[in-house]
Amino acid sequence: MSAAVPELKQISRVEAMRLGPGWSHSCHAMLYAANPGQLFGRIPMRFSVLMQMRFDGLLGFPGGFVDRRFWSLEDGLNRVLGLGLGCLRLTEADYLSSHLTEGPHRVVAHLYARQLTLEQLHAVEISAVHSRDHGLEVLGLVRVPLYTQKDRVGGFPNFLSNAFISTAKYQLLFALKVLNMMPEEKLAEAVAAATEKQKKALEKLLPSSS
Prior knowledge:
Elements: E1 9-11, H1 13-17, E2 24-39, E3 43-54, E4 59-60, E5 63-66, H2 73-84, E6 95-100, E7 107-116, H3 118-129, E8 138-144, H4 156-160, H5 168-178, H6 184-205
Parallel strand pairs: 2-7
Antiparallel strand pairs: 1-6, 2-3, 2-5, 3-4, 3-8, 6-7
Organism: Myotis myotis
Protein name: Tudor-interacting repair regulator protein
Subcellular location: Nucleus
């Protein structure tokens, strides 16, 4: 039996807007494009999804916290995107989901998603290099490998073995599922393979008990 795809508690946008002042709001954007290419001429790429390496060494989506006292969700998100990408504005039509985070901090994480052409996606990558935060808070954009190689670890499972900020991994898995970019069983297989890889790596680091 394969592992289930992990999920956080989802709430509606209306419910999120009714939360009191004790809650913080984070807004992030998933930009993606259909990709007809093939890796090594035989492995379908299917889609290209952008994430970024942060200053703290963690992977996440472009975006950040929005102060609801001064900004709407979209205006706050676009302000942050302007610093890290430099060339894109999202609207309420791009809104995808809101999730409550686990832990001591009361944060509701909003995710926006927009499908671009592959050429537009590449233009975002080029623009990001020239943005204000490049090389500082943002260390570069990366494309998520949405395929699994024959060894059942290479590609997406290996990518999931990386360290992600807060809800980013959950949001990625959620978006891939609800946008029909990857079947849920394939997502679950990748999660299980990544978990097993991390478990084995930890066992190698820890001395065996006598």
